[in-house]
Specification:
The complex is a heterodimer. Chain A is an alpha+beta fold. Chain A contains 3 helices and 5 strands, in the order βββαββαα. Chain B contains 18 helices and 21 strands. Classes of the chains: A alpha+beta, B alpha+beta.
Chain lengths: 109, 551
């Protein structure tokens, strides 16, 4: 997918403070470890709620490095627009045994 | 090798206690990220794309087998079973938990290692020739001076908040293997007219978005003035270096904007004020530090007869030795480059098992010494020639026997967008593709010496500016785009490569590199004319034409 494809929604991402794990804001303001469980923010009200949830989690010292990123939906998948965020969601592109993708591979196995 | 004295030990222990408490307070919520970030950076802890990253200092690239085994232990216990050796002769772990870092630092301290000043706007690890103390062409071992600089610059109160980071590099040999002319301060150990040891001092080199070759600021600095002169340079930089713009804050910009003549005047004036003060190095203190770096007990009976026989009888061994074995100052011995660039591999990565095995080799055959090179390889600096075939056999079993030192597959690559929060494009996959494309033994050797260096952003950690062929990854309209530079070099004839033309996307860049290589092979004067020599002879044009046509 070309990286400049039009975004259809946004999601909130961060790293968990204690272990650095990449997380996304999910439903019920839970920070989830897989992008598939991220909560899509499709209008300004949803975005505002997402930002507020992130601010609370930062203040509670649970996450760091918050970013709101553009994503598209491909079927049931949520795909970040930028390569950087696709790599964060999966792991290093040359080692499928590292990062989130390794977990997915072992789940599928 | 240097051993901690009571001050070093206490300093490291105190710092671990201090930082462990800071981590505890951060996790407890008593410190926020704004307060904590500068503290973690002072201790080598970054937050990257996937996780935290811990950069551990390998002072001037020297370590022993116990230290290498500890790095393997850290990789296994706290990380994902591997580490990444860097162009600053350090090692990075890519997946540690913040909550584990106090324990990691304690484990490292048990073998006299730490992560202090591996980040932040302070004086970083002084890098050195990887063959220091061993090379046949060396005037003197530069590491005692690097160690003296380390002691002076560790927690130096005046230089803990510089305008920007500050990097020393030092070589003891006229052939520069430490890239000293692209460092903030570069030093070359030389002998003066009276035979005494001193330094040729360069200042203001660097890469990044504004690459600059260092200027020679002093032709000869007496040994006793090493610290006074360094302090004078740092003081002038600290006073006049720009703090208004992060991108103009390195000393290279000050040198460029002020001019070396005027700056030399400022430095010399400051130097005159302090040169006979507390920083004047007593000769006995230098000799005391030197004693830590005494060469091991070499084998006086080593003659290389077995090596000659093996070399004549085993073509694979000979091919490896011809590239990866370096002349030693003591007869019957050699330095060995253990390539961390297997064909298709990740430059600079080593698994915990490989680290352990290399530590075993150092212990068995290498007088317990190891080095990390800025070209991201490991070195056994001292090996008996007659043990080389055994070392080679062990390396074959480890998958580390590629005899590609200085060849096209011996690539420097930064972590790039696969790991790094600053990167705009990937570096490592490109290095792997180039390695696979040119990986046949015959083809690499036909091409000869050719250094490719790849950076995934303009910060140039992958040294692309000084690659014979340099590749810089940028982001353009959301896609990875790669710029090619030609003619860079980081030795005693340092040059900054020039951009050959418009960039190439990820699909085309490897073909473009191949076009450059094929063009070189066609135009070289003879088989011994290296890529760099040929480029310097013919310039850009033939390569431009081959890449872009004549239009």
């Amino acid at each position: 997918m070309p990286a400049h494809a039009k975004a259809t929604a946004r999601i909130v991402t961060a790293n968990r403070l204690a272990d650095g794990e990449v997380v996304w804001l999910g439903h019920n303001d839970v920070w989830v470890e897989t992008i598939e469980s991220a909560r899509l923010l499709e209008d300004e009200a949803a975005l505002e709620a997402g930002n507020a949830a992130a601010a609370r989690a930062v203040a509670a010292n649970r996450i760091v490095d918050v970013d709101v990123i553009d994503v598209t939906r491909e079927g049931s998948a949520i795909v970040p627009v930028r390569l950087r965020e696709r790599i964060r969601a999966a792991g290093p592109t040359f080692r499928k045994d590292l990062g989130k993708q390794s977990q997915r591979a072992s789940d599928a196995a | 090798m240097y051993r901690y004295d009571e001050f070093d030990r206490e300093f490291v222990d105190q710092r671990i206690a201090q930082f462990s408490d800071q981590v505890r307070r951060r996790l407890a919520g008593d410190l926020n990220e704004e307060q904590f970030k500068p503290l973690r950076l002072m201790n080598g802890v970054y937050l990257q794309l996937h996780a935290y990253m811990l950069r551990v200092c390998v002072p001037y690239g020297t370590l022993n087998s116990a230290q290498m085994r500890m790095l393997a232990h850290v990789a296994r216990k706290y990380d994902r079973g591997y580490g990444h050796f860097t162009t600053r002769q350090n090692i990075q772990f890519n997946w540690p938990k913040l909550s584990d870092i106090p324990a990691i630092l304690e484990d490292l301290a048990s073998v006299e290692m730490h992560a202090i000043q591996t980040s932040g706007n302070c004086i970083r690890n002084t890098t050195a020739d990887q063959f220091a103390g061993a090379a046949a062409d060396e005037v003197a071992d530069p590491r005692p001076y690097a160690e003296i600089i380390r002691q002076w610059s560790s927690l130096h109160p005046e230089f803990t908040f510089l305008p920007r980071k500050f990097k020393f590099a030092i070589t003891g040999a006229p052939h520069d293997r430490a890239a000293i002319q692209v460092h903030d301060i570069g030093m070359q150990v030389v002998r003066g007219e009276d035979g005494g040891i001193g330094f040729k001092v360069y200042v203001g080199g660097g890469q990044g978005r504004t690459p600059m070759i260092a200027k020679l600021v002093r032709e000869f600095l007496p040994e006793e003035d090493l610290l006074a002169y360094s302090e004078a340079i740092l003081r002038v930089y600290n006073r006049y270096g720009r703090r208004d713009n992060k991108y103009k804050a390195r000393i290279k910009i000050l040198v460029h904007e002020t001019g070396i003549e005027e700056l030399r005047g400022d430095i010399e004036a400051e130097f005159e004020k302090i040169r006979h003060g507390v920083l004047q190095l007593p000769a006995e203190e230098v000799r005391r530090i030197e004693a830590y770096f005494q060469p091991p007990a070499f084998d006086p009976s080593a003659n290389g007869a077995r090596f000659e026989a093996k070399h004549a009888g085993d073509p694979a061994f000979a091919a490896w030795a011809d590239r990866n074995v370096h002349p030693h100052k003591v007869a019957g011995h050699a330095s060995v480059t253990i390539s961390l660039k297997p064909i298709g591999g990740v430059p600079g990565d080593a698994s915990a098992d490989q680290m352990d095995a290399v530590a075993d080799l150092a212990e068995t055959f290498g007088f317990d010494e190891l080095r990390v090179s800025h070209e991201q390889n490991l070195i056994l600096p001292h090996v008996r020639l007659d043990d080389l075939d055994k070392v080679y056999a062990a390396l074959v079993d480890l998958g580390l026997a590629e005899g590609n030192c200085g060849l096209i597959t011996d690539i420097i690559a930064c972590p790039g967008l696969d790991y790094c929060a600053l990167a705009n494009a990937r570096s490592i996959p490109l290095a792997q593709e180039i390695s696979n494309r040119f990986g046949s033994a015959a083809r690499q050797r036909e091409i000869g010496e050719l250094k490719i260096k790849i950076s995934g952003c303009i910060n140039a950690c992958g040294h692309h500016h000084v690659g014979h062929i340099g590749i810089l990854g940028v982001e353009k309209k959301g896609e990875e785009l790669y710029q090619l530079t030609l003619g860079g070099s980081a030795d005693e004839n340092t040059s900054i490569g020039s951009i050959v033309g418009r960039g190439f996307d990820g699909e085309k860049i490897i073909d473009a590199v191949e076009t450059v290589v094929e063009t070189y092979l066609k135009l070289r004067a003879n088989d011994n004319e290296t890529f760099l020599a040929a480029y310097r002879r013919v310039g850009d044009e033939p390569f431009k034409e081959a890449l872009y046509g004549t239009a």
